[in-house]
Amino acid sequence: MEQNNKKAVRTLPFFLIGILFVLLSGLYGGISALDAAAHFKDNLLFVLYELLFPASVITALFAALLWSRKSNRMYRAYAFSAMVLGVLYLAVMPGLSAPDELSHYSTAYRISSTMLFEDPLIRPAGLTAVRASDYPLEDMNGVKTPDIPEDTEELPEVLGNPVKQTTYRAVKDWEKRYAFSTKPVASPIPDVKTTPVFYLPQAIGFSIARVLGLGAMGLLFLGKFLNLCCYVALTALAVRTAPIGKSWFAAAGLLPMSLHLAASLSYDAGLIGCVFLFTALVFKLAYGTEEIRARELIALCALAALFGPCKLVYAPLILLALLIPARVFGGFGKKLLCILILLLSLVAAVLAVNADVLEAYFFPAAAEQAGNVSADMSHAGFTAAELFSHPFFTLRMLVNSFSARLLNWGAEMIGMKLGNLDPLLGASGLQTLLFALGLVALTLADSSGEKNYVLVPGSKAAWQEEDAAEAGEGTAVETATAAEALPEQESEANTEAALSTLSEQETAGEVLTAATTEQVAEAAETLRELREEEAAEEVLADEEKSGPHYMEVREPGRFARFYALLIGCISFFGILFAMLLAWTSRDALWIEGVQGRYFLPLLPLFLFGLQNKTVQSELPFKRLVPYGFVILNLCVGIRIFALAVLRV
């Protein structure tokens, strides 16, 4: 108890410093909001800040309370933090401000129309049908109201792209500016051709808004909010499932870019959540359970079938299943069978969704003739055959990309440029550095020496292979135990023989003395008690093997960390190769189109592979780092609002 109290006192200054950071950021934001309100003669900007700042302080206080507790239920603190911060990003960056959010908006709208049994397209043009009152959101052509050709603007502007001071006024006055109309009009925005599962939350939100007769702002809010709820549910479940590295998933899920994508219409929210949950489930089976169950295998197959077709570059992650010991599957043969089932699930899903994409990658001439080349690939200058036949050129492009863009990818992954890679809105350079240092701190070893235990549900069979191995190693101990138990066994046998002889004498009619009768009764009672104790011990042993019980989390070895790092690198270079193939033009000096957000699903895997066992720390970084990320996100949110209200 004294040790726990000592640790609580030692970490208290970190939580207090975090609250102080929010207060200082609030002072900066308040000055900017006052300046903007005075300059633009719009008091709404300061009124909004009067809501933002107290909410940030209250969030910081609750986060300090939750993350300061030393508990195995980290997922609760994470779920609260991610949900509140997601709503914060949804508020300070409204509209269609996230990367490629216009295309995600169009796709979710089309799926929503299908859900409502409406025609999702305007025929014969084949364009997505949207309500006339929702059309001004995308405003690519300067026409604000399709029914009134005279209602135009000189500079077409998508709401929230970029975010500036007029964006907040437009959101507030939207329903006054544009009359509600359900008349379908054609949207010029192309949709995304991928698995529709990751658009279900957004589409459900759109459908609810349309059924309730809500306007464009209600439509956007419900679509984004349900997407955020899906992200929080998946990532919190990953934090809860993982027996090791809960802080890795929590920290990666609390990065500004992760939360910004979660609070948007982007399918990256569901993609990140599924990859996190798949990785956490593999860790659970590898280090925190005794036997795989059918539902866990089904979950692995379902998750792989979801994220694999969405982005093929993450498909190598299914090879992480090789980290799971054979005894968890019930033998090496069953392990191979389960991995084969997992692989077939991925391949079937990829072929069902990405057949045209694969054809365009490897057979561009045939794909172009068939009309299967996407807009993103139409300007690409390379084919797979060319890149494989010129390995030194491919290597040179990789080296150039690393030297020129590696730091930018890292900063973008953290969230230095949010929105559509907006250089003004996002984490500052100092904030980005603090986020990076927090990730590095999670690779340090914990010197507390505490052992982690997980509750294992009832398993149908014991670890027969491990028991056999332990039996082989402990032969001498078992022999000594058997030698000690031999006198007891002989005594029990002698007692049984004596009782049998006395019983035969009594049957033959011989008269037994009273003393002898008492001895016989005592011996029989002693024998009965011994047998009851043996039966109770057997039942207890069976419960420990097959019933719910706690087990110590197994420690990953060096080979496991190296293997996980290798799998992460395969996906990393797969992203680079895919963008070199599908996006980079022939006159480019490095690989084009790569964004740091593509590496977010791989971050927990890299943190696992980079664990440092030599450098240790007494500080509880598992709790301090996620809490620090909450504080930094609050500061980032205040900074974004402070800069946006001064932006014309």
Topology:
Layout: H1 2-40, H2 44-67, H3 74-92, H4 101-115, E1 121-122, E2 127-131, H5 165-172, H6 174-177, E3 184-187, H7 200-212, H8 216-241, H9 246-253, H10 256-262, H11 268-287, H12 294-310, H13 326-329, H14 332-362, H15 364-370, H16 384-389, H17 391-414, H18 429-441, E4 444-446, E5 453-456, H19 464-473, H20 475-507, H21 514-546, E6 549-552, H22 558-582, H23 603-609, E7 612-617, H24 621-644
Parallel strand pairs: 4-7
Antiparallel strand pairs: 1-2, 2-3, 5-6
Helix pairs in contact: 1-2, 1-24, 2-3, 2-24, 3-8, 3-9, 3-24, 4-7, 7-8, 8-9, 8-11, 9-24, 10-11, 11-12, 12-14, 14-15, 18-24, 20-21, 22-23
- The rounded distance between the terminal residues' Cα atoms is 57 Å
Q: Going across the major beta sheet, what is the strand order?
A: 1-2-3
Estimate the helix proportion, in percent. 55-70%
For the residues shown, what is the average pLDDT?
Answer: 82
Rg: 32 Å
Tally of individual helices: 24
Number of strands: 7
Descriptive keywords:
648 residues, mainly alpha, 3-stranded antiparallel beta sheet, two-stranded parallel ribbon, 24 helices, 7 strands, 64% helix, 4% strand, globular
